[in-house]
From TrEMBL:
This is Methyltransferase type 11 domain-containing protein. SUPFAM superfamilies: S-adenosyl-L-methionine-dependent methyltransferases. PANTHER family: 2-METHOXY-6-POLYPRENYL-1,4-BENZOQUINOL METHYLASE, MITOCHONDRIAL, METHYLTRANSFERASE. Pfam families: Methyltransf_11. It comes from the Eukaryota. Residues 52-155 form the Methyltransferase type domain.
Length: 282
């Protein structure tokens, strides 16, 4: 997707994302900012002075970071979607015309992750939760992160992990196949950066002196199949798919998906996403 297409998609998806998806990203967000050192108190380690959050989404991670950072640390958040920015401002009690909360040393900007409007070396910490695999050119995003970090600065990213370990994205396909429904897939899979060896190589090629990558699993915060259906039938892509299907077949898809998830959970299985994450030093 181009940057313009990404902005349009996330503007349309912002409300559903904030309600159903973003709560599930918070454990990974905590993992990223903890690896940056935001929650550490080791003797001799310098305090973080300025943090950049790229692709802040609906602001749940931003709010977490604001609550964890030291009062003197500046936090700058940005997102490509003006609707996401608006939701973040409401979450933080800001007026829509405001761009900062001076007493919290916080600012927010509408911009593209591949074309950041910040000076070279402006930050000593950078994190981006579930964005690198979505941008038009991930190498550009890595290069921009390297540029805006000062020497010795730390950066952290998360992306979708290995598809075979991420059952939350195979369930709809499995049920659709059973019903003879054809799902149109994007030209580039959102799992295209799942290989941690590749992630490290990309970071080192961008100039980072150190790069560590690994996997973790995060289960969906759902309790039953109905909640899964509410979540995964709320996307812009699903709304388009609905227009192409017989209404009865679409309802059957939802019913069978709910039953499928209920059966998995009764068997004691988590539904969730494996996440690959990358921690780098400039």
């Amino acid at each position: 997707m181009t940057s313009a297409e990404l902005e349009k998609k996330w503007d349309e998806f912002s409300t559903s994302f904030a309600r159903y998806y973003e709560p599930n990203t918070l454990p990974i967000c905590f993992l990223l900012i903890s690896n940056l050192g935001l929650t550490s108190n080791f003797n001799g380690r310098p305090h973080i002075r300025s943090i950049l959050e790229v692709a802040c989404g609906a602001g749940a991670g931003t709010e977490m970071c604001l609550n964890l950072k030291k009062p003197e640390t500046h936090l700058e958040a940005c997102d490509i979607s003006s609707e996401m920015i608006a939701i973040t401002k409401r979450r933080l009690g800001m007026k829509q015309e405001d761009t900062s909360i001076p007493e919290k040393r916080f600012s927010i900007t509408h911009c593209d992750a591949e074309k950041l409007p910040y000076k070279d070396g402006a930050f000593d910490a950078y994190f981006s939760n579930f964005c690198l695999h979505l941008v038009h050119d991930p190498d550009n995003m890595l290069a921009e992160a390297y540029r805006v970090l000062e020497k010795g600065g730390m950066a952290a990213w998360s992306v979708w992990g290995r598809p075979e370990n991420s059952n939350q994205f195979s369930i709809l396909k499995n049920v659709a196949t059973e019903l003879g429904i054809q799902i149109i897939h994007p030209s580039r899979s959102a799992f295209h950066l799942h290989d941690t060896t590749k992630l490290r190589q990309m970071a080192l090629a961008a100039g980072f002196s150190e790069a560590t990558a690994g996997y973790t699993f995060c289960n969906l915060m759902i309790r039953n199949g109905n909640e899964f259906v509410q979540t995964f039938f709320s996307t812009p892509e699903m709304k388009l798919t609905k227009k192409t299907l017989d209404p009865k077949l679409f309802i059957e898809w939802k019913v069978k998906t709910q039953e499928y998830v209920d059966d998995l959970m009764k068997n004691g299985d988590f539904i969730g996403l494996e996440t690959a994450y990358l921690i780098c030093k400039k």
